[in-house]
Amino acid sequence: MAYRNKTYVAFDGDNDIRYYHLMRAWRQRDNSTFNFYDAHDLNTARDSSQEISIKRQLSIRMMNTKVFVLLIGSNTRYLRKFVKWEIETAIRLNLPIICVNLNKSRSSDNLCPVSLENKLAIFIPFEKKIMQHALENWPDSYKKYKLLGKSGPYFYKESVYDKL
């Protein structure tokens, strides 16, 4: 079994890749406390033209994943080929899911993919401090809530944002 210490980030590669690149830039800044071990650093698909090859490589990345981050943009809800599969795989692997709203919403909204309806996940806006907080804290909260049989969307209270 793989050592799970990575963060898997799923997003709309056509429209939202700049947000993923910004997350990587936050991680690389010398004076930043924002950090995550990116599952996308592990490998690349050898035959990137074949869906089955891509999914095989993504599966390997997910097996090394501690937490699944979904960047939710205006088109994410409609993506069926890879993002839907990534979400379903994260759910099947029982990964803690952090939904990051690119529209800065602090809750689930009509942009959320149907695959996540009634699934245990935390919803946060695309902001560095709350993202770091979620990466550090949501996996343990997720485990606790799962043991209690909880499901559905979760949100941080205003007091968490005030502290940050």
Automatic annotation (TrEMBL):
- The name this protein goes by in its record: MTH538 TIR-like domain
Domain of life assignment: Bacteria
Under the heading SUPFAM superfamilies, the entry gives: Hypothetical protein MTH538
> Sorted alphabetically, which Gene3D superfamilies does this protein's record hold?
3.40.50.11200
Q: Which Pfam families match?
A: ThsB_TIR
* Domain Thoeris protein ThsB TIR-like per the UniProt entry, residue ranges: 8-106
Q: Which InterPro entries does the record match to this protein?
A: ThsB__TIR-like_domain, ThsB_TIR-like_sf
